[in-house]
Write a structure and sequence with these properties.
Length: 181
């Protein structure tokens, strides 16, 4: 299965992705995690990405798309994946579509985790990641509204809307049910 996870920052995509990845036996590919790993290792990509991430802005698409393409070319991603954090703009969605086209593959679904903004702010402040201070959160929510939310219309019928408010297990159960699993 090839799935994309959408939703505002703090919607719980990463948490849900980890569970889904195990249950569906497909790798969880998170651009946020890939960036953080690069930052931790001090790679040139990490150094470049850190500036944007700390400011709550999007890392330039050229950099992000290359990183994703390389990751998707790895062997464990041959038969499916769960993409978390990419695409985040319509431009990135078009890049992903071209990539899939070239390989004669298609997306099986786009899961859209829906949750109110006050809930996501609360969750992000509670988890306390380096880029989770109030100002950065505000910027990321604005970036989500401006650049990522248009993907909801873009994907149209492929979209699987899931209410992401509730216990982790409950949200997972809703997702599995909608995936017919
Ligand atoms: P969250 O789900 O809370 O938004 P992520 O871990 O997915 O956090 O992403 C952290 C940061 O990494 C983002 O705020 C952004 O700066 C950068 N990032 C992640 N994915 C992308 C992407 N597809 N394009 C550009 N920047 C990205």
């Amino acid at each position: 299965m090839r799935l994309v996870l959408l939703g505002p920052p703090g919607a719980g995509k990463g948490t849900q992705a980890a569970i889904l990845s195990e249950k569906l036996n497909i790798p969880h590919i998170s651009t946020g995690d890939l960036f953080r790993a690069n930052i931790g290792e001090g790679t040139p990509l990490g150094v470049e990405a850190k500036e944007y991430i700390d400011a709550g802005k999007l890392v330039p698409t050229e950099v992000t798309a290359r990183m994703v393409e390389e990751r998707l070319a790895e062997q464990d991603a041959e038969n499916g994946w769960l993409l978390d954090g990419f695409p985040r703009t319509v431009e990135q969605a078009e890049i992903l579509a071209e990539l899939l086209d070239r390989q004669g593959q298609k997306l099986d679904g786009v899961i859209n985790y829906q949750v109110d903004e006050d809930v996501v702010v609360e969750r992000m402040l509670a988890r306390g990641r380096a880029d989770d201070n109030e100002e950065t959160i505000r910027t990321r929510l604005q970036v989500y509204r401006d650049e990522t939310s248009p993907l909801i219309d873009h994907y149209g019928d492929a979209l699987i809307n899931i209410d992401a408010d509730g216990e982790v297990e409950e949200v997972n159960a809703r997702t599995m049910e909608r995936l017919g699993q």
